[in-house]
Amino acid sequence: MISCFGFVQSLPMLKSTPHFVAHRCRWRGLLGSVLTDLGIVNSLGGATLGSLIELIFPGLMIMWTFSASQSKETDVTEVFGRFEGRHGARLLTGLGVALLCFGTSIVLAVKVFKMDL
To answer: Which of 7, 17, 51, 54 has the fewest CB atoms within 10 Å, measured from its CB?
Structure first.
């Protein structure tokens, strides 16, 4: 079976489903006609997910773990101190949000609006 790029599909489950290949080719054609540079999507994804994974999610997990350890009905031991659980986690999450906004604005300025920085 030939895919939309002309090479043979190597996955056995796709060899019996020509509808999957045709459907996938339609979406590629649609994205290719709308977007001229997929690097924008890649850069925005990197800026967004990088700040989420590195700063925002750990800060939220620290906040939630600290609040669970302070609750009376749970048996979670106190993992974080009071300063880490309250102020450190908020600082980490706030820095993540700032990095998310800064990174996204830089990507939009350089890739979309073609500004030289």
So the answer is: 7
Look-up of token digits 């043979």? 8
Domain presence at residue 117: no
Query: What letter does residue 1 receive in the DSSP assignment?
Result: -
Tell me which residue range forms the domain holding 107: 39-112
> The pTM is what?
0.67
- The reply to whether 30 and 44 lie within a common domain is no
Q: What is the pLDDT of residues 38-64, one digit of tens each?
A: 888 889 899 999 999 999 999 999 999
The model's pLDDT over 1-35, given as tens digits with 9 standing for 90+, comes to 444 444 444 545 545 555 555 555 566 566 667 77
The SS3 call for residue 2 is strand
DSSP 8-class letter at 16: T
Instruction: Name which of 11, 5, 6 is nearest 29 in CA terms.
Output: 5
In the chain, the number of structural domains is 2
- Buried b / exposed e over 2-31, threshold 16 CB at 10 Å, is ebeeeeeeeeeeeeeeeeebeeeeeeeeee
